[in-house]
Each structure stands twice: as C-alpha cells, then as structure tokens.
Amino acid sequence: MTRNDSDDLVVWEAEPATGQVLVHAINGFLDAGGGGRLAVAHLVGALEHEVVARIDIDALFDYRARRPRMTFAADHYDEVDLPAMVLRQMRDDAGRPFLLLSGPEPDIAWQRLVTALVGVVDTAEVPLTIGLHAVPWPAPHTRPVGVTAHATTPSLIEGRRSWVGALEVPGHLGGLLELSLGRTGHDAMGFAAHVPHYLAGAEYPRAALALLEDLSAATGLALPLGALAQAADRTDADVNAQLATNPENSEAVRALEAQYDAFLAERGEPSGGDAPLPSGEEIAEQVEQFLAELDARGREES
Q1: Residue boundaries of the structural domains of the chain
Q2: Rounded CA gap, 80 and 70, in Å?
Q3: 100-129, pLDDT tens digit by residue?
Q4: What is the DSSP string of the chain?
Q5: Which pLDDT belongs to residue 276?
Q6: Do the Cβ atoms of 144 and 172 come closer than 8 Å?
Q7: What is the pLDDT of residues 199-256, one digit of tens each?
Q8: Nearest CA to 103 among 60, 69, 64, 142?
Q9: In this structure, are residues 228 and 205 in contact, taking their beta carbons and an 8 Å threshold?
Q10: In contact, 173 and 129? CB cutoff 8 Å
C-alpha cells in the first residue's frame, strides 16, 4: 500500500489491508438518539479490532466551545475525557475485515479533513464508503425504525424508496465527505435512521440496530446484533412505562401512530389507522423544521 502523505492530519499507526469497506459515524449534528455513536460502541465492544490511524484532533477541535470533562478527586485532577477521532480495522464474526472511522465532528477545517479522508480512501483502495447517521423524525417508537438511504450513484440503493423529496439541511461532515467522494469518482452511500423526535435527545439503541442491520445487508458483513436488540427492547419497555404514567403523552403518541400509519398506507406499506394522509412534502417540512431547531440549539450551546 502506498500512503498518501499530502496531509499530516492522518497519523498512521499500522498498515491496514486494502480493498475494505470503510464505515464512518461522526458524532455531532446528525446523531439523533446517539444512533451512530451507539452503533460504533457496539461494534468496538463486540468485534476484534485495532487502531490503524488517528486524526490530529488538536488541529480541528475547539476545546473552549466544547470543554472536555475532567474529574477532580479531593486534592488532584484524576481523569480527563479528551476527544479522539480514530480509524480502526475491524473484523466481523466471519473474520472479514472492514474499516471504521469514528469520533466527534470537528469544529474547523472540514474541507482539509475531507480532502485527507478522500486520500485515505485512495490509499487503502476502499471500494465503498458508508456513513451511519440518525435524524429526528415524526414517527412513533411503537413502529419499526425507518431508514433513509442515500448514495453517490442510484445503483447503490436500487430498490429503496425515498421518504422525502428535496429539503434543505444544515451541513455536516459526513454529508460533505459523501459529496466529495462522489465528485472524485468513488462509490459512497449512507443510512439515516429515523428516530422519534421526542426521543432524539435520549439514547435510542433501536436506531443503532436499524443502522447496523442495513449496513450488514448492504455489505454482507456478519455483525453480532443480539445484545443491541436486547438493549433496544429494554429501552422500548422503559419508554412505554414512562408514557403509561402520563395520559397526555400517551394520547400524543397514539395521534402520531395514526398519522404515521396513514403515511405508510399512502406508500403502499403495511399500516393501520384512518387519519388524514400527510404528504411527503409535509413530512419533509417537519423533518426540515426539526433539523433547523436542532442546529439552532447547537449554536446556542456553543
């Protein structure tokens, strides 16, 4: 493998095999319910892996805007949770290798980092790059998690129907990477799990499960998902228990079920309910509003 040393943002620590799928999940804007973060944590905890490269996060991260957590123990500083963006070589349950890039979304130098990552794709002769995201969605937690698939070429997502038409979303690193890969002739795609908007700020493992199921289907990777499915079941049970204590919230979820079922019926998918049908444009408007509000909150917090 001939390494591309045009940018020192990528610090190689080991020699990865070539020809592997590259999966990326960048914590930041498009990670409702921690979908991508939980997917990464599950893979790292369940599969054999090694770090093959690190991204120079000091060149990209605003520490004063997002101060790392530190622990002070009586009379001394004990721990600090410093940010890190790493590239791991993973092995699935069948021993098949793939690359996994994860870490916080940088504050600055997006174009420089994306150029460096396109260089990584070239260096490692990556045939396909797949992003894992999660977005807030007007859907109830009592229905299967929907997933929007997107790609640099239609053939990569052939047979999958779009959930919305055109909509404007705030820029994010994962999207910029996919766009740049497509413009440089590389195959890239992504999955965005639909997280119930009222659970977007909590951990929602069912979104991570949906992402990894689609990742496995798209690549043939053998991924252990049993423990993640159990975590998703526990979370659903907890949410149901909390809703049972508040009739108003329960009624709001039932109304959302009716609206969502009607939307699915319009798409010709299994559903129930007889509420007025929302159009794809109406769903898109709601999603666009959710994302705009999420972006505004992020700006206020920083």
Answers
A1: 10-301
A2: 4
A3: 999 999 999 999 999 999 999 999 999 999
A4: -----S-TTEEE-S-PPSS--EEEEEESTTBGGGHHHHHHHHHHHHSEEEEEEEE-GGGT--TTTSPPPEEEETTEEEEE----EEEEEEE-TTS-EEEEEEEEPPSS-HHHHHHHHHHHHHHTT-S-EEEEEEEEES--TTSPPPEEEEESSGGGGTTPPPS---------HHHHHHHHHHHTT--EEEEEEEEEGGGTTS--HHHHHHHHHHHHHHH------HHHHHHHHHHHHHHHHHHHT-HHHHHHHHHHHHHHHHHHHHTT-S----PPPPPHHHHHHHHHHHHHHHHHHHHHH-
A5: 41
A6: no
A7: 999 999 999 999 999 999 999 999 999 999 999 999 999 999 988 888 888 888 888 8
A8: 60
A9: yes
A10: no
The rounded distance, in Å, linking the Cα atoms of 51 and 15 is 10
> Which tokens sit at 59?
């060149």
Decide if 9 contacts 59 (C-beta within 8 A): yes
297 pLDDT exceeds 90?
Answer: no
φ, ψ (nearest 5 deg) of residue 191: -125, 135
119: left (phi over 0), alpha (psi -120 to 50) or beta: alpha
Instruction: Give Rg (Cα) of the chain.
Output: 20
10-301 fold = Rossmann fold (3.40.50)
Tell me the C-alpha distance between 162 and 159, whole Å: 10
